[in-house]
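<instruction>
Derive structure tokens from the sequence

<record> Sequence and structure tokens follow
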Amino acid sequence: MYNIIADLHTHTSACTHAYSTIDEMVQSAYNKGLFALAITDHYGTMQGCPSKDYFEDILSYPMYINNVRVLKGVEANIITPDGHTDCEDDLLSKLEWVVASIHSLYINGRSKNNDYTELWLNIAHNPYVNIIGHSGSPEFPYNYDLVIREFAKCGKLVEINAGSFYSRKSYLSNCITIAKTCKKYNARIVVNSDAHCDTDVNRLDSALIMLKDIDFPQELIVNSSIENLKEYFDEYNIKY
């Protein structure tokens, strides 16, 4: 089984649909032996999300708490079929970590022929985005071969979202296809919990079993070792 050393997509009680504070999430990461934790609360279109001030203020948090590298970020919601998010570039440029994802309630309009390939191709070229979040929704299909090849070219990390294995069962067959396509094109991935409470930090077992079943290469899992993660940090000038 893979050894995951960072959970890079989590939410705190700053969002009204999550239940633990930053300090509680970090303590859980420390207790579970993680090297890093990304705090990626929602902004903009999601109900109950914090204000812009929150994301600017969180930057004053220490880089390390209890020896855990705390990445200050956001989950940016993609709100148009051509790939615009609900986060202003001036905010994205200040943050250390950005997950881009689709939440169906907030897409403004439908894509041509119900195909979201163009959306993800545009996100692939967004310089602020680190992670492609839970993209396996059957509601928003895209050309996996074309897009994942572009993700690999542009250095985006494709997320295998363990939360989908528990709460988005309709995503699962697509998640497997996405993982296999990442393996095909040497696209790097991250395995994240999408935790909304401290007990779910690093809850990844089902996703890791799936990756083991398809013999996914460990060297393509950025958060499977401190060396892999630091190499990515170096590429994108992220401090550690």
